[in-house]
Amino acid sequence: MIAFLGMGHLGANFVKAMLAKGKQVNVWNRTASKAQALEADGAKAYEQVADAVKGCNQIHLTLKDDASVDEILEQASAGLAAGATIIDHTTTSTAGAKKRTEEWKQKGFTYLHAPVFMGPQNARESTGFMLVSGDQEVIKKWEPELAQMTGTVMNFGTESDKAAGMKLIGNLFLIAMTGGISDALALARSTGISTDDVTKLFNTFNPGAMLPARLKKITSDTFDQPTWELNMARKDAGLMMKEAEGKHPLIVIPSVAAEMDKWIARGHGHNDWTVFTKDNL
Questions:
Q1: Of 100, 199, 231, 263, which shows the fewest CB atoms inside 10 Å?
Q2: Against a cut of 0.85, is the pTM above it?
Q3: What gap in Å lies between CA 192 and CA 186, rounded to an integer?
Q4: C-alpha pair distances (Å), 218 with each of 223, 225, 227
Q5: Residue-by-residue pLDDT tens, the chain, 281 positions
């Protein structure tokens, strides 16, 4: 028997996918109506979280943050079956993931942090990416079950907090990329270029495809072999900010330009433009 706690868009669609595969699922949500809505799909809803987990050997969570995970697990603890496994898909801190792994083991339960790069549609279709790390015997036992929930299970080794860190790294990039898109649209508006033309540009010129090569270039520490000098990249950043000035200000490029200025002042203007990342290697 499975219990699933947290019936937001992601959790609800995970549950619908499980039910479609013939699994029995108990559901709980702080707003009870969201859990009750899933009874039409075959789930059994509970108003008390401790009741929802009774008799279940696996408990999945999709909650908000560390505090909510700790709060709900504490409330659920009275109903947990001996030796039950808690599988937490919530995006949390690394410290929180490590702490819960250790504390729930001491209490006689298994806690596995398994955050995801999946939207609601991915959860419904069992596609996307699920990240795990920690006790490899635990992962080996549960990976077949997790693989039914997602397209790919990515195992990052024995450190119980590494999956949490990898999820944050991925989300950081998504946030930074969205900031870059915002700047691109702001520059387009400032120069009278339509969003249709911006879309046309990126339908053909795909900077995302350059990510593996760019990461390899940065981590190889070959900044003395420039493909684009920092001085020239900074010049272009200046042009971008000038075009947008007083019209639609940029939010990402000014911060990057300020970091570039620091490295130029340190004598790296003729190095590869990515040299401003060097301190993070």
A1: 199
A2: yes
A3: 10
A4: 8, 11, 12
A5: 999 999 999 999 999 999 999 999 999 999 999 999 999 999 999 999 999 999 999 999 999 999 999 999 999 999 999 999 999 999 999 999 999 999 999 999 999 999 999 999 999 999 999 999 999 999 999 999 999 999 999 999 999 999 999 999 999 999 999 999 999 999 999 999 999 999 999 999 999 999 999 999 999 999 999 999 999 999 999 999 999 999 999 999 999 999 999 999 999 999 999 999 999 98
